[in-house]
């Protein structure tokens, strides 16, 4: 991110399949890819250098669509409201003001934003299925990956329409970018002066403190802390002025930066909560290679704890299952060696029921077909909604075993 070639190897995670890959037959061989974590000695940025082709990660098979999640819809409503609160709505109108969402998926965030602000909207989304859903629901989207070259062309097209870009958002895609410099250059190119760049990121502080191994899959090339990010954005006249902690993906930040050519612009002054987050990161030394050491220590401790629990259960011939055919299951399985312990994966997603975890005989079954009464322990692999799943298991009279919840700390609960 700072262009320094001085990188330190922090942790080599086990090779794993691309997230959300499931096969039609047992033990079907699917290619695995490396995931190696490096830390920049100069700025502390944590990153993966095992870069896969974007078309392979986000092609026609890409299935994630947030509109099916009521929780995420509520979250984006909250987020859009916060963006509206830091905006000058009286200077906006739908004919001349434009909001662009990079990696817009099925258009959910832009739909929420249109309820709050009088703006025209445009998504940028290369994945076919979510883009079609977006357009069907009235949110236009460009079929493209984002780049500074695209931004330059778009800027000219937008100007010819008499519009200017007041907002650019990039929610949970800022971590996907292989070329952050070009990405930030494009955002700065698009935004009008005093325009706002808002983005949501998984937060390195939470990843470390909660050992969030589930955020490490091949789309995610960067794991952000604010201190290196703040310095980086400034080089593109983008000034962080606020960040809000949210309980998404185990712990995330909604960040707000304003484009300004004047460093001392009053509208770019940092909020008190942003200053407090900077202090926490300074104490943890997250602008140094200490960030990588802390991450390695946290993940290895989690791995040891889970292996200890599963090894003890296996030695007692306990029957183990997994709850959640999550997008991160491939990495969870590789990191915790789950194929050596469990017999089934429980999930009600109709797109996954009846399929198998690649390179294994672990089959996805519906909860009502799972024979919960025959299981002694369930490890919750859908780690984001883990508390909801745990409550379901406690209330289900068929299951009288133990449940393992991985985060924010690994705990075993008798159901």
The total number of structural domains is 2
Number of strands: 17
CATH architectural name of the largest domain: 3-Layer(aba) Sandwich
Multimeric state = single chain
* Rg of Cα set: 22 Å
Strand order of the main beta sheet, please?
A: 6-5-4-7-8-11-10
| Count of individual helical segments | 12
Helix percent reads: 25-40%
Q: Per the principal axes of the C-alpha atoms, what is the gross shape?
A: globular
CATH class identity of the largest domain: Alpha Beta
SS-based structural class?
Answer: alpha/beta
What's the order of the H and E elements? EEEHHEHEHEHEHEHEHEEHHEHEEEHEE
Description:
With 415 residues, the chain is an alpha/beta fold. The chain folds into two domains: 243 residues, Rossmann fold, CATH 3.40.50.150; 106 residues, NAD(P)-binding Rossmann-like Domain (Rossmann fold), CATH 3.40.50. Helices cover 33% and strands 23% of the residues. The chain has twelve helices and 17 strands. It has a seven-stranded mixed β-sheet with strand order 6-5-4-7-8-11-10, sandwiched between helices. Strands 14-13-12-15-16-17 form a six-stranded mixed β-sheet, covered by helices on one side. β15, α12 and β16 form a beta-alpha-beta unit. α2 packs across α3.
